[in-house]
Write a structure and sequence with these properties.
The chain folds into five domains: 21-142, no CATH class; 158-236; 267-352; 359-419, SH3 type barrels, CATH 2.30.30; 429-533, 2-Layer Sandwich (Alpha-Beta Plaits), CATH 3.30.70.100. It has helices spanning 2-18, 22-27, 35-41, 64-80, 112-118, 122-142, 146-185, 202-233, 240-263, 265-294, 307-326, 336-352, 354-369, 409-413, 443-456, 492-509; strands at 44-48, 51-56, 90-93, 98-102, 105-110, 192-194, 197-200, 377-380, 383-390, 394-399, 404-408, 417-419, 429-437, 467-473, 478-486. The protein has a five-stranded antiparallel beta sheet with strand order 11-10-9-8-12. The chain has a three-stranded antiparallel beta sheet with strand order 3-4-5. It has 542 residues and is an alpha+beta fold. α1 (2-18) runs antiparallel to α7 and α5 (112-118) packs across α6. Residues 1-41 and 194-199 have low confidence and may be disordered. The two termini are 88 Å apart.
Length: 542
């Protein structure tokens, strides 16, 4: 069914081109010597049965194409007149030019400008035109004889049969190739993996193989169809121009691509060398900054954590420099289309990535400011959590409630950041809490009880020693602040809770009432919890 469908398409295309009007192919210039020059000089070719006899110039009031069409029509009328003898064609000289014709029947008047275009005297050019026109008339008549048309039809039939057999052969070979690939390589195609990550699935790879086989089959079918049409259409005078037009449609673009590629070989070689140089430079920079990150290479005033972001910046700079150098050598870079697309992409990028660029700049700024690093306990814009990942555009925080918060780097750059971990590693982090105690309680007793509560709290540092500050003498109570040291910022919550429990226990033991936040009058009984009630159910004694 597939080859039948392809064969039907081939027959339809051949029929359409075969029944095309004779002037269709003749109106379009056929490829040949001087075509580019003719186009540049405003010339139009005179064509008979798809063969260019010569080219003629024109003027504004009588364009070259109109003049060429008139000359072609006169030649065809003479050729169609069986009583006309081509030998009677001659040249008559006058002040206006060299007249080519037979008696009263004019074919073309050769002017001085015609000779100037061809670079020879117009009289010589007129004699050449006469010989060319006589031969064209003879060829026109010979191509339309019964014998020539019969031979063309016979050759077309043979070509049709050969094309059909070629199509069948191509399709059968394509089926055999598919079955051979299935049998030979289907089980050998495996997924492309990197470590444990599957980069390309086996089904996708096998799809690529089958697609390549289908592409080869399609190219073979197109080649058979092209050869068949080119040969068959060239057998008949009415479609010979269409056969030449096929070259313009198929071979001319390939020739342009090939010539363009050959002309661009020096630029492509330069781009290849530039690519190798840039790639070598990137590898060298990566090795250097990797050594800095490991500590194998030490730079004065350069933190090891800066190695990776600095490498990324240098990598972008090297790639940008390489693109700037390569731009003039990229094929088509000087064309208006390339410039327009580049401008459009630049505008879209600038309009759509302003926030992204600001976040990236903020990310690098924070890196070199050493605001925090992964694993630090920080508070950003009122959010308390641990830094889990620092990226170019956002920073990930895990809160103490095990929530992940994604904060844009531009937001971090514009707000204050509290880092609990930076100094805790060397000097310890100070935890503090306040209590309000009445004026009737000696301040020495209160400070001793707070220090006792700190000693009972496990996880706090013995050195530096805890200390107490009296922060305010209020209207109803004295505000005391206990300050203790810890070296684990992630344990802030549990340490605060344990410290508060111990403060309550110590003050209850000594019968001292905590007045925080304030009170309006002294109660009859102090607000304390007796020891015998500390483990009232459901509390369990520890």
């Amino acid at each position: 069914m597939r080859w039948l469908a392809a064969w039907r398409i081939l027959l339809v295309a051949a029929t359409l081109l075969a029944v095309a009007p004779p002037g269709l192919a003749q109106e379009s210039p056929a490829p040949g010597p001087g075509r580019d020059a003719a186009g540049d000089a405003g010339l139009a070719p005179v064509q008979i049965d798809g063969r260019t006899l010569f080219s003629v110039p024109g003027i504004t009031s009588f364009p070259a194409a109109r003049r060429a069409a008139a000359v072609r029509q006169r030649i065809e009328e003479l050729a169609a007149d069986a009583a006309f003898d081509p030998a009677t064609l001659g040249v008559t000289e006058s002040e206006l030019g060299s007249r080519i014709g037979a008696g009263e029947r004019l074919v073309i008047r050769v002017l001085d400008v015609d000779g100037e275009v061809e670079g020879i005297d117009r009289r010589v050019l007129a004699e050449i035109y006469v010989r060319t026109i006589q031969q064209a008339i003879l060829d026109y008549r010979a191509a339309r004889t019964r014998e020539a048309l019969t031979a063309g039809a016979r050759r077309a039939g043979i070509a049709t049969l050969a094309a059909a057999l070629a199509l069948v052969l191509v399709l059968r070979l394509a089926g055999a190739l598919k079955r051979w690939l299935e049998h030979r390589y289907r089980e050998r195609v495996h997924a492309v993996t990197f470590s444990s990550f599957e980069v390309v699935r086996a089904e996708r790879l096998w799809g690529f193989v089958r697609g390549a086989a289908r592409l080869v089959t399609a190219l073979a079918l197109l080649a058979v169809t092209y050869l068949y049409l080119h040969y068959t259409l060239g057998l008949f005078p009415w479609t010979r121009g269409a056969a030449g037009q096929l070259d313009d449609w198929v071979l001319a673009p390939l020739a342009v691509l090939g010539s363009g590629l050959v002309a661009r070989i020096p630029d492509l070689l330069f781009l290849a060398v530039l690519y190798l140089v840039v790639r070598w430079a990137l590898r060298l920079v990566h090795v250097f900054f990797a050594a800095v990150g490991r500590g194998d290479v030490e730079l004065s005033g350069f933190d090891r954590d800066w190695a990776e972001p600095t490498y990324k910046l240098v990598r972008v700079a090297i790639v940008a420099f390489g693109l700037i150098v390569a731009y003039p050598y990229i094929p088509g870079s000087s064309s208006e289309a390339f410039k327009g697309v580049s401008l459009f992409l630049g505008i879209v990028f600038s309009l759509g990535s302003s926030s992204a660029i600001s976040n990236i700049i903020a990310g690098y700024t924070m890196t070199y400011r050493r605001a925090f690093r992964e694993g630090d306990r920080v508070k950003i814009a009122g959010i308390l959590g641990d830094v889990t990942r620092v990226r170019l555009q956002v920073t990930h925080l895990r809160t103490i409630k095990n929530e992940e918060v994604v904060v844009p780097n531009s937001t971090i750059l514009g707000s204050e950041v509290t880092n609990y971990s930076t100094l805790a590693r060397d000097r310890g982090l100070i935890l503090h809490t306040t209590v309000g105690i009445g004026y009737e309680t000696p301040w020495r007793q209160v400070e001793a009880m707070l220090l006792e509560a700190a000693r009972r709290t496990a996880g706090l540092l013995a050195e530096p020693k805890p200390f107490v500050l009296q922060t305010a003498l209020g209207d109803f109570a004295v505000t005391y602040e206990i300050n203790v040291y810890c070296d684990d910022p992630q344990a802030m919550g549990p340490l605060y809770s344990e410290l508060h429990r111990n403060i309550l226990d110590v003050f209850n033991e000594y019968g001292v009432q905590i007045m925080t936040p304030a009170y309006e009058g002294d109660p009859e009984q102090p607000k304390i919890v007796p020891r015998e009630q500390w483990f009232t159910k459901p509390a369990a004694e520890r």
